[in-house]
User: Which sequence fits this backbone?
């Protein structure tokens, strides 16, 4: 009959029993037990039992006390099972499973009794005393306990760093000794095949926690753990390969490891794999697959995946286009504090896409996003104040929010802020600051800023007049496809502003702008056909282009761009 919980509690697992017949001391047949004279570890109820046990297997495991103490002194105090290599432990049977032992499978306890590694590991799983089966000396801590203790110590030091009490580069002597011990234990366990220890060793080298940061070593440890199926190691290895840290950058290999982790449910791996599918990086572009992986991560609550899934629905990539679904996923991401998603929710409320139009709710979400530092929301909020849309018009508030976005590098905001300084709206008028912000955006490639800067140099408006500079910036904007700048550059070529007169180039520029529907360029192109400048005279073409311009309400009353 199985023992009850009470029976187990009241039993004495440390009671002495005969090593041969297992009769407990004090029983009718074993009033007093005598220890083996050689090892002193095993006890018997009679000489008959001692002889029987000696012949059975005790002879090969019996180690004299003096010999045992000598071996123990050579072993590291409290060390876990070491692989046995001495000749006297190879080729015998394990006393637990009775199978043959080899040097590759042997392990020696601190008492110097030798068993299979796997047998001792299984022994630890049973609800019995954690002692040597032969001599009942307590087992040292097992790998799991050693790992748990190492992680506990690691977490304590990590918390101290996180709270600002110390840093990884300036640990106190005691914390340094503690971390050295942690790394030693982790390394030993990792070298003996513990996947979790291998992964943590990768993290230690990846982050430089207690060791010199080394991406090569990090990748090596991640690889060992990844090969054993550890999904966190698979993701981190993919990330190192994706970014070329410690290993050669390889998009295909990165995608392979991301996928291995993603298939096990790793959220960030699913998200990264979705991005690679969407952009055709490391594997064939597949929007349906991208959407599938984004959805897996989104369903687990990952806000970035929810945001990307919203864009998939918004643009009909991999799924049927649906503003309603796009709004749903943007809103889920917004509720977790994603500033970009909050901007999208605000925009959809403003435009009435996927939800009922509401300027009030749009403002609410723009403000939430802007307060989190998202530049596009700050700029949009500034424009709403500038134009009095949904709020009381205020140039001061407009300038405040637009400046926040400009400082973060948003080009449209930089140009607009320069315009505010130029006109003195919401800020003190300053040609110097106007030029600073307009040129800042122009230098970064904003076509409208380049076009405006050209006009400033052409007219000497707030800057020294310079037709050469005007031509330079007008051409920059024209090369980006700005139809206004293409028309302006055509006039510069026609009228010899900052460059030699060239009717052929003028016609080419007018034609590019006119093809985009810009009425002033259509009118100028018509006049070039009328005069035969840069093209063969053609009154039919003249009538056609002039009519296009007039149909848009343009009658030809224009000056330089």
Assistant:
């Amino acid at each position: 009959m199985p023992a009850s919980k009470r029976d187990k509690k009241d039993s004495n697992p440390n009671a002495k029993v005969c090593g041969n017949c297992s009769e407990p001391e004090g029983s009718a047949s074993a009033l007093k037990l005598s220890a083996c004279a050689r090892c002193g570890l095993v006890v018997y109820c009679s000489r008959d039992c001692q002889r029987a046990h000696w012949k059975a297997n005790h002879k090969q495991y019996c180690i004299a006390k003096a010999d045992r103490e000598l071996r123990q002194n050579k072993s590291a105090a409290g060390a876990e099972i070491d692989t046995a290599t001495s000749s006297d432990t190879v080729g015998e049977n394990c006393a637990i499973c009775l199978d043959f032992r080899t040097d590759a499978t042997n392990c020696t306890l601190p008492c110097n009794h030798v068993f299979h590694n796997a047998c001792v590991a299984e022994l630890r799983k049973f609800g019995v005393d954690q002692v040597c089966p032969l001599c009942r000396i307590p087992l040292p801590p097992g790998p799991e306990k050693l790992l748990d203790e190492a992680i506990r110590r690691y977490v304590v030091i990590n918390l101290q760093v996180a709270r600002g009490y110390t840093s990884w580069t300036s640990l106190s002597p005691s914390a340094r000794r503690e971390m050295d011990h942690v790394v030693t234990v982790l390394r030993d366990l990792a070298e003996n095949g513990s996947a979790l220890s291998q992964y943590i060793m990768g993290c230690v080298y990846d982050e430089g926690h207690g060791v010199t940061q080394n991406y090569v070593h990090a990748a090596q440890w991640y690889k060992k753990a990844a090969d054993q199926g550890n999904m966190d190691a698979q993701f981190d290895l993919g990330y190192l390969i994706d970014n070329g840290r410690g290993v050669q950058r390889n998009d295909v290999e990165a995608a392979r490891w991301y996928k291995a982790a993603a298939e096990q449910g790793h959220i960030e791996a699913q998200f990264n794999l979705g991005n690679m599918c969407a952009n055709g990086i490391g594997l064939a572009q597949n929007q349906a697959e991208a959407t599938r992986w984004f959805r897996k991560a989104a369903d687990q609550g990952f806000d970035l995946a929810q945001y990307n899934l919203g864009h998939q629905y918004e643009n009909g990539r991999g799924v049927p286009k649906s503003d309603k679904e796009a709004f749903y996923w943007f809103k889920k991401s917004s509720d977790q504090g994603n500033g970009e998603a909050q901007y999208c929710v605000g925009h959809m409320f403003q435009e009435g896409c996927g939800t009922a139009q509401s300027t009030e709710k749009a403002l609410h979400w723009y403000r939430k996003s802007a307060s989190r530092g998202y530049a596009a929301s700050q700029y949009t909020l500034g424009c709403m104040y500038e134009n009095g849309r949904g709020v009381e018009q205020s140039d001061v508030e407009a300038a405040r929010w637009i400046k926040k976005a400009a400082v973060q590098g948003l080009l449209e905001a930089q140009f607009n802020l320069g315009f505010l300084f130029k006109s003195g709206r919401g800020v003190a008028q300053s040609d110097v600051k106007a030029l600073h912000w307009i040129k800042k955006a122009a230098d970064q490639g904003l076509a409208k800023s380049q076009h405006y800067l050209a006009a400033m140099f052409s007219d000497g408006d707030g800057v020294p007049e310079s037709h050469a500079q005007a031509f330079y910036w007008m051409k920059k904007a024209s090369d980006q496809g700005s139809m206004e700048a293409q028309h302006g550059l055509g006039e510069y070529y026609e009228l010899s502003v900052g460059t030699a007169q060239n009717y052929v180039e003028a016609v080419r520029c007018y034609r590019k702008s006119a093809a985009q529907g810009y009425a002033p360029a259509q009118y100028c192109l018509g006049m070039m056909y009328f005069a035969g400048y840069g093209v063969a005279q053609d009154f039919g073409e003249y009538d056609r282009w002039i009519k296009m311009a007039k149909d848009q309400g343009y009658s030809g009353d224009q000056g330089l761009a």
